[in-house]
Amino acid sequence: MESQTDLLNRPGIFLIGSSNVGKRTLLSRLTSVDVEGAAFDSASQVNVHGWTINNKYYTADVSIWMAHLNDDFSAANVPVFRRMTALVMVFDMNEPSSLAAPREWVSHTDIQNFEILLCIGNKVDLVTGHPAHAEYRRRLLKLEDSAADLYSEEYGISELEGTSLLGDEEPSWDIRRSCLEWCTDHNIEFIEACGSNADFDKCLSIDGDLQELSVSTVHFLLICGLEWY
Question: Which SUPFAM superfamilies does the protein's record reference (predicted)?
């Protein structure tokens, strides 16, 4: 187990967002470690994890500092904030207020010290009428068991969610458009993701090209930015 001193000396990734936007789920997917039940330090309101990035090009030990954005949060309580390399902000695509939280935080925080700036719109599977639903449905239909019940919990679609997942309703893109404009203004990379459903996550695309796995896209952007360390 990594010591606190060891984690303090590693290149840092700052993962922030409101409560219940899926930060723990995304972190678990990125690090392949279950952190769903991780407790937050009551004094600093942060949770720190070690992560070893290991690929065919290099190996790097980094630390990921996760924090809930709320009225009491202050970056001053994070000991290595000024020395962190990457900022990853997460919001719920279905909750406009969850995007307002990181926008408000950035408005009074200097983020220029970060080499990598990412904003993740999570829980895309719950966005009514999102184009990825059609791709997800096509993939389900290609399953070998043609008799499978598409509305079963086994395939990630409940009977109650059937309308939003498979319907033809036009989605409201206000939150996405607002986020894209804000990200462009601040040179932040925007990525959509579905941290809780890897199969749906594979159906997301950027400008018409499948991301293959958007959480892995986050992983790729992070390791590229951290490669020089």
Answer: P-loop containing nucleoside triphosphate hydrolases (SSF52540)
When computed from its CA atoms, the radius of gyration of the chain, rounded to whole angstroms, is 18
The answer to whether the CB of 124 falls within 8 A of the CB of 132 is: yes
Q: Which CATH superfamily is domain 4-130+165-227 in?
A: P-loop containing nucleotide triphosphate hydrolases (3.40.50.300)
Name the nearest CA neighbour of 16 among 127, 124, 104, 96: 104
**Do 210 and 217 meet the contact criterion of CB atoms below 8 Å apart?**
no
Q: Could you tell me the CA-to-CA distances from 119 to 9, 137, 192 in Å, in that order?
A: 25, 27, 8
Q: Judging by beta carbons within 10 Å of its beta carbon (0-12, 13-18, 19+), is residue 79 exposed, middle or buried? A: middle
- Per residue in 54-84, pLDDT (tens digit) is 767 677 788 899 999 987 888 877 878 888 9
pTM: 0.78
DSSP per-residue letters across 95-152: -HHHHHHHHHHHHTS--TT-SEEEEEEE-GGGSTT-THHHHHHHHHHTSS-TT--TTS
Task: List pLDDT tens digits, range 162-189.
Answer: 444 444 444 346 888 899 999 999 999 9
**Domain parsing of the chain, residue ranges:** 4-130+165-227
* Residue 17 φ then ψ, to 5°: 165, 170
